Amino acid sequence: MINQQQKQPFWLTVLFVLALLFTAVSLSGLAYTKWFAESNQQENQSALVLQQQLILAQDDVINTNWLRTLNPLVKNVEGRVLWSNILQQGIMEFIGLPKIAKNQAYQLWIYDLAGKDSKPVFSNEFSLANTRAMLIPFSAKNLILSPFKFELVLKTAGEDLSQPLFLAQP
């Protein structure tokens, strides 16, 4: 039997090695970017845990669970809301809050018994980086003296109506 093994041209070998190197560098760059983003998010969440503990230490803390609406988007979501009138700050906690479309945002509204009218006060608008357990800080645009309801809604750009997702009442 005659061995008919042909040698590949040198340029083809070089091209193959360069493609492997390019792939390796690209993948390591993507891995670093993902690691860096997760590292920053973990640091941010750690700082929010400290803020959560500060709010919980206040004498006037409101600590209540979210009550789900019948919206199927949030049927498996859990969480709570913390608020301090003294600090005029709060933390929302969610486990499993779903990602939403780019033209949508979650909005938090606070209802105040001592407010000038019965309209809620806009507090916060956010989207999600991940759907694991997360803490989201908030404050109100106006002074809140006697909050009686927190409402999280899903707002779609260009639409007047919002979908109610959660309610929390002290």
What does the secondary structure layout of this molecule look like, with pairings?
Elements (H helix, E strand, L loop, with lengths): L9 H47 L5 E4 L1 E2 L9 E7 L4 E7 L8 E9 L8 E6 L7 E5 L8 E10 L5 E7 L2
Antiparallel strand pairs: 1-3, 2-9, 3-4, 4-7, 5-6, 5-8, 8-9
Write a structural description:
The protein has 170 residues and is an alpha+beta fold. Helix content is 28%, strand content 34%. The chain has 1 helix and 9 strands. It has one helix at 10-56; strands spanning 62-65, 67-68, 78-84, 89-95, 104-112, 121-126, 134-138, 147-156, 162-168. The strands form 2 sheets. A 5-stranded antiparallel beta sheet has the order 2-9-8-5-6, with no helix packed on it. Strand 8 (147-156) and strand 9 (162-168) form a beta hairpin. The chain is elongated and about 85 Å long. The N and C termini lie far apart (88 Å). The mean pLDDT is 84.
The residue fraction in helices comes out at: 25-40%
Largest sheet: 5 strands, antiparallel
Q: Whole-number radius of gyration?
A: 25 Å
How would you describe the shape? elongated
Order of helices and strands: HEEEEEEEEE
Which stretches of 5+ consecutive residues score pLDDT under 50?
none
Broad structural category: alpha+beta
Based on the structure, what is the oligomeric state of the protein chains?
single chain
Side-by-side strand order of the widest sheet: 2-9-8-5-6
> Strand content of the residues, in percent?
25-35%
Number of strands: 9
* N-to-C span: 88 Å
Distinct helical segment count? 1
Overall average residue pLDDT: 84
